[in-house]
UniProtKB/TrEMBL annotation:
Location of the Molybdopterin-guanine dinucleotide biosynthesis protein B (MobB) domain: 3-135
GO biological process, one term: Mo-molybdopterin cofactor biosynthetic process
Matching SUPFAM superfamilies: P-loop containing nucleoside triphosphate hydrolases (SSF52540)
Protein name: Molybdopterin-guanine dinucleotide biosynthesis protein B
Organism: Telmatospirillum siberiense
PANTHER family registered for this protein in UniProt: MOLYBDOPTERIN-GUANINE DINUCLEOTIDE BIOSYNTHESIS ADAPTER PROTEIN (PTHR40072:SF1), MOLYBDOPTERIN-GUANINE DINUCLEOTIDE BIOSYNTHESIS ADAPTER PROTEIN-RELATED (PTHR40072)
Top-level lineage group: Bacteria
A Pfam family assignment: MobB
A single GO molecular function term of this UniProt record: GTP binding
InterPro entries: MGD_biosynthesis_adapter, MobB_dom, P-loop_NTPase
Length: 166
């Protein structure tokens, strides 16, 4: 399974870009899955629902299933955040796994950068950033640069980089 990621500061547009990339890659007949890192607690079920009640009662894992989909929720319960490798072991193999976040993990990634956020670029201080996408020209960088308004060019780059271009 090939892995490629998007990294950048909150508000830079990683999720918006990720959605466009997934749509365009799937249209090429490539199977894609995603992992998104959240920096806070989150729920995918709601209070009052059976799955939420199971977790609140102390279950370590709760699986919800139907004829349309299944979801597995795992409560960490003080064990510490799992590594990306540990999370990858839970994923069903596909052609391409796109990761949003996990900027310090060791995999190739595209930095999504918007100068108006007032944050510094992650490159060159973050390992394995292999390209940058922005909504403005960024001057001289020794990396491939892409316009956020051109997701097709970013898709071509990712597929070439991961060996999935056809």
């Amino acid at each position: 399974m090939r892995v490629f990621g998007l990294a950048g500061w909150s508000g830079a547009g990683k999720t918006t870009l990720m959605i466009e990339l997934v749509r365009r890659i799937v249209l090429r007949g490539i199977r894609v899955s995603t992992i998104k890192h959240a920096h806070h607690a989150f729920d995918i079920d709601r209070p009052g629902k059976d799955s939420h009640r199971h977790r609140e009662a102390g279950a370590t894992e709760v699986m919800v299933t139907s004829g349309a989909r299944w979801a597995l929720m795992h409560e960490i319960r003080g064990e510490g955040e799992p590594s990306l490798d540990a999370l990858l072991a839970h994923m069903t193999p596909v052609d391409l796994l796109l990761i949003e976040g996990f900027k310090s993990e060791d995999y190739d990634k595209l930095e999504v950068h918007r100068p108006e956020l007032g944050k510094p670029m992650l490159w060159p201080d973050t390992s394995r950033i292999v390209a940058v996408a922005s909504d403005v020209p960024l001057g001289d960088l020794p990396l491939p640069r892409f316009d956020l308004a051109d997701p097709d060019a970013i898709v071509r780059f990712i597929l070439e980089r991961t060996g999935l271009s056809r």
